[in-house]
Amino acid sequence: MATTSFYNKCSPHLLSLLRIILAFLFMQHGGQKLFDFPAPMPGPPLELLSLVGLAGVLELFGGLFLFLGLFTRPVAFLLSGLMAVAYFMAHAPKGFWPTVNGGELAVLYCFAFLYLAVAGGGAWSFDRIMGKG
């Protein structure tokens, strides 16, 4: 019984920690596409009005919203869809298995964001402060 109480008390905080770390890692992909930071993106220069440019904007700013826990559910749902599209457009044509086609991260992000879309931002989020979490 004491263990259940411990888990119930820690769950919202660990959910926030998952959201923050996930968003921090995800924003780096957008930063790489848009600003060549923290490392330059391989390939030709980015065209902002392209699918990759749109993905970069969504990754950076959607990641920032998730990092803050602001509009967590709709943003996470949008980013989950982005990662599903990225997987099926860029990775799946290279083969069935994500390990072979390089799509493991896209799949993980897709389902982690889908989880956040349902679970919300957790204890440490602006959504909770504003009463929407």
Summarize the structure.
The chain has 133 residues and is mainly alpha-helical. It is built from 6 helices and no strands. The protein has helices spanning 2-35, 51-68, 72-91, 98-101, 104-119, 126-129.
Q: What does it look like?
A:
The protein is mainly α. 72% of the residues lie in helices and 0% in strands. The chain is globular. The relative contact order is 0.16.
Compile the SSE list and pairings.
Elements: H1 2-35, H2 51-68, H3 72-91, H4 98-101, H5 104-119, H6 126-129
Helix pairs in contact: 1-2, 1-5, 2-3, 3-5
How much is the radius of gyration in Å?
16 Å
**Count of DSSP H/I helices:** 6
Q: Uncertain regions: pLDDT < 50 for 5+ in a row? A: none
Assembly type of the chains comes to: single chain
User: Any idea what the shape is?
Assistant: globular
Class computed from helices, strands and strand pairing: mainly alpha
Kindly report how far apart the N and C termini lie.
Answer: 27 Å
**pLDDT averaged over residues:** 94
Quantity of strands, as a count: 0
Q: Major sheet, described briefly?
A: none
Per DSSP, what share of the residues sits in E-state strands of 2 or more residues? under 5%
What is the domain tally?
A: 1
Tell me roughly what share of residues is in helical segments: over 70%
Q: What is the ordering of alpha helices and beta strands? A: HHHHHH
